[in-house]
Design goal:
5-stranded parallel sheet, single chain, 15 helices, about 475 residues, Dna Ligase, domain 1, alpha+beta, Rossmann fold
């Protein structure tokens, strides 16, 4: 049996909660000597065997590639969507650095919702009925046809919108207002208008090497700001895994029906996808349907997924970057398209700043971090700064993700609730119903909005 190739020096691009979770995980794996994080954060820098580079621009591909070469990096991992859209992966690859993260061309599967529909249609992957429009009047006419069917309309900005470029409309008047807002800017706009679907959401992320795909456990994200799926869309206010209504057998089938056909189509177009392919799904009465694809690990899904993996992640990321994922899986005895997970659960609850998802208020001191950690939680920092006296302050919209773990979802949810109750800062916003539906509590009104809100904004944070 072959021996896994372990990356000993890893460069992680980003500085949010997703990147904190990845750094926490990778730095603890056997054989890893150093995880560099650019730019990282003060909280990420507290992790053992992690060094942050706060003065490095995460969008500067040539500078990052030069850094990777100078530091003898064996694997680069790109966290947020903005560096992917800026072509940072292309710069790494051109410099000969094995890179987990798709090229700019392949990342269009996320950066353009119209392109996602085009690729999915060519691949035979079912999505909501949709039209792509560059003008207000034809978009309004299509929305009127969908609204006449009585199920509502979804209006999406075509490009990246920090998780908030989607409006779910109950009426034609709401759709017309959303379209008018989209086309009100000074430049040209492209808008995707979709039929509204109903069902519970799920996130299914796979490690991909251009041909092969290995799925992480399924997770469920909560996009709306308030309890009961009330309030505006956000980048994600919490997540949990496993997902009781998406068992492993169904998840494995979805890897074959969704991820693999999309990989095949992207490769056929000359843009093979190497990285984390995120399928945002809605579990409709007619079966799972793809709502969107992202080109990277989800946030806050990553915060509940990496604690559940039962095999090292680093060797698989390196293998995906090098196009040898199937061979790398053999030493672990994998006999299917899913990575093995611990028989446990994880629940993440996000603490957001005052004003979020609008302009957030910053600079508020954060209390209770040590108490939350003392209760056994993981605390991943999404938007914090550190004073010289050791005081953490809010700096960004989503501030922290507090992760509880347990043998069951109910136990994990209780652990997360106990820990986040210790966190305090002025204007703190959080939900109280994350995973409630999965454990028999009050359920949020699951709807297409939960997965339609698009890519989460870069932000993050298990250290202190």
């Amino acid at each position: 049996m072959s021996v896994p190739v372990i990356p000993t020096r890893i460069l992680l691009v980003g500085g949010g909660g997703r990147e904190h979770a990845l750094a926490w995980r990778l730095a603890r794996e056997p054989g890893v000597e150093l995880v560099l994080v650019a730019p990282g954060s003060a909280a990420i820098a507290t992790e053992p065997q992690v060094r942050c580079l706060p003065n490095v621009d995460p969008l500067d591909g040539p500078a990052l590639a030069a850094l990777a070469r100078a530091e003898a990096v064996e694997l680069a991992v790109i966290g947020p969507e903005a560096p992917l859209a800026a072509g940072v992966a292309d710069a790494f690859v051109a410099a000969g650095v094995p890179t987990f993260g798709p090229s700019r061309a392949a990342a269009r599967i996320e950066t353009s919702k119209a392109f996602c529909h085009e690729v999915a249609s060519a691949a035979g992957v079912r999505m909501a009925r949709a039209g792509v429009f560059g003008g207000l009047e034809p978009a309004r006419a299509f929305a009127a046809r969908l609204a006449a069917e009585g199920d509502g309309v979804v209006v999406k900005a075509d490009g990246l919108a920090a998780g908030k470029g989607v409006t779910v409309c109950d009426t034609l008047a709401q759709a017309e207002a959303a379209l008018a807002a989209q086309f009100a800017g000074p430049g040209p706009a492209t808008v995707v208008v979709e039929e509204r679907l109903h069902g519970r959401e799920a996130s299914l992320i796979a490690l991909c090497d251009g041909r092969e795909a290995l799925g992480l456990p399924a997770a469920r994200d909560h996009k709306r700001l308030g309890d009961g799926d009330s309030g505006p869309n956000t980048g994600g206010m919490g997540a949990f895994s496993p997902v009781p209504d998406l068992p492993d057998s169904v998840a494995a089938e979805l890897i074959e029906r969704v991820h693999r056909p999309i990989l095949t189509e992207l490769a056929r177009r000359g843009t093979p996808f190497r990285g984390a392919l995120y399928a945002g799904l809605i579990l409709t009465p007619d079966g799972p349907t793809l709502l969107e694809c992202n080109a990277r690990f989800g946030d806050p899904e990553t915060q509940v997924l990496v604690p559940r993996l039962s095999i090292p992640l680093g060797p698989l990321l390196l293998a995906a970057a090098q196009g040898r994922l199937a061979a790398a899986a053999r030493p672990y005895g994998l006999d299917g398209p899913l990575l093995p997970a611990l028989p446990s659960a994880a629940v993440a609850i996000v603490a957001a700043a005052a004003g979020y998802p609008g302009p957030p208020r910053g600079g508020d001191p954060i209390g209770g971090l040590d108490e939350a950690l003392a209760r056994g939680a993981l605390v991943f920092h999404a938007g914090t700064s550190l004073d010289p006296d050791g005081t953490y302050r809010t700096r960004g919209g989503r501030v922290l993700a507090v992760v509880g773990q347990g043998a069951t979802l109910a136990a994990a949810r209780a652990a997360a609730e106990r820990a986040i109750e210790r966190i305090a800062f002025a204007g703190l916003q959080r939900r109280h119903d994350i995973a409630a539906d999965a454990v028999g509590g009050s359920a949020p009104a699951a709807d297409q909005v939960a997965m339609a809100a698009g890519p989460a904004p870069a932000g993050g944070g298990a250290g202190r």
